[in-house]
Structure formats: structure tokens, C-alpha cells
Design a protein that fits this description.
The protein is of the alpha/beta class. Helix content is about 35%, strand content about 20%. The radius of gyration is 16 Å and the shape is globular.
């Protein structure tokens, strides 16, 4: 299965979900997080999905306190299951990026594979929420596939985009310039773009 397959696999006898792509991308993402995250503090993960990324990162960055979130009740149950027993992970909270955020503080915000699998309003809400929540110099870190002006889109990403739009007309790969513009409107300064495996990107911003 390629990294374009975002399907859930959930055993019928349990609440844990499994997103196959997490096993393939988590180590590469963790390497970049080591460069971008603060040495200590609270990391809010928006749209934590299955919870597998949060559990993996919490073990690799034990000095950070991880705050997973998701708007889906089934995802919250899966996150709680994957992260059970990890002392540096807070209980997951229900958070819709496009709505009011029930979180008062974070030293970093991480969002993996949400921007393209949600309406554009969710991305605007993500930028607004991070802009309100983060202190100056703190990072917002995104991961996922994007379109880039002047850069040919990989065939696998084109196929993925078509499949997303067939499922929901409000979903699809976003133009990176539009994402940067939305972030900078909320006081988040573009810092770096890093090419990742399977035609994905890490996109990092800092609160001004």
C-alpha cells in the first residue's frame, strides 16, 4: 500500500484504528520534528487521527508534553488506546480546527495529513487557532502533499487528489502558496519547506 492510501484498518474487537501510512512516514517525520520542535513544552497535535503518530512521537520526545486532538469521537477513543500508559501524553480532546479550540496554551502545533482531507475552512481555522495560541517564535508544523506553483505534481498525488474530490468536493490538495498566505495573515511566518518521502512535504512556520 502506498502513502497515498489513507484508509483506516480497525479490528472489529477493539477501538484502535490503524492508518497504514503511519508506519512508513513516522520515522522521517520524527527526524524533522527533532529540528523544529522546542526541547521542552506542550505540543498540540491537531487532527491526531488514529493516535499512532502521537504515541510514536511521545516515546521519541519524552521531554515534551503531547496534547492530541480530533473532532471524531471514534478517533478520540483510538488515540486514548494507542497512548495509554504514556506519561507525557494528555487525554485527547475534541477539537474541530474550524471551530473554537478548547486549549489554552501550546509551545508548538503539529498537523499531519489534515489540510487536504478537510474543507478549506479547516485550514483557515488551523492558522487562526495557531496564531492565537502560539507564543512568539513557536512553530506550526504541517505534513502532507501539496501543489506548488511551477512544480509538476507527481502522478500519484494527482490520482490521490482525484480520489479525494470524488469523496468530497471540498477536499483536495491545496496550493502551497495559498496555505502560506493564510498562515501569514495570522502572524505565522513561513520558515521552511522540506521534501519528504512519497511526494509529501514538511511545511514549517513560526509565530511572529
Amino acid at each position: 500500500m502506498s502513502d497515498r492510501d489513507r484508509s483506516w484498518l480497525a479490528p472489529p474487537e477493539g477501538v484502535r484504528r490503524h492508518a497504514p501510512a503511519t508506519l512508513r512516514n513516522r520515522a522521517a517525520i520524527a527526524t524533522m520534528l527533532g529540528e523544529l520542535l522546542p526541547a521542552a513544552g506542550a505540543v498540540l497535535e491537531v487532527a491526531s487521527g488514529s493516535g499512532e503518530h502521537c504515541a510514536y512521537f511521545a516515546e521519541h520526545f519524552p521531554k515534551l508534553e503531547w496534547h492530541p486532538s480530533d473532532p471524531d469521537p471514534d478517533a478520540l477513543a483510538s488515540i486514548a488506546s494507542w497512548c495509554a500508559g504514556l506519561a507525557n501524553v494528555r487525554p485527547p480532546v475534541a477539537l474541530d480546527a474550524a471551530a473554537t479550540w478548547p486549549v489554552g496554551h501550546a509551545d508548538a502545533v503539529l498537523c499531519i495529513n489534515m489540510v487536504h482531507i478537510s474543507p478549506w475552512a479547516a485550514t483557515l481555522g488551523l492558522m487562526a487557532g495557531a496564531g492565537r495560541l502560539l507564543p512568539p517564535g513557536a512553530p506550526l508544523i504541517l505534513y502532507g502533499p501539496y501543489r506548488e506553483a511551477g512544480v509538476p505534481t507527481a502522478p500519484s498525488n494527482e490520482e490521490f487528489d482525484e480520489s479525494l474530490r470524488a469523496r468530497n468536493a471540498d477536499w483536495g490538495l491545496r496550493l502551497l502558496d495559498d496555505v502560506v498566505e493564510a498562515a501569514e495573515a495570522e502572524g505565522l511566518v513561513f520558515e521552511r519547506r522540506v521534501a519528504m518521502p512519497a511526494n509529501n512535504l514538511i511545511v514549517a512556520f513560526r509565530r511572529s
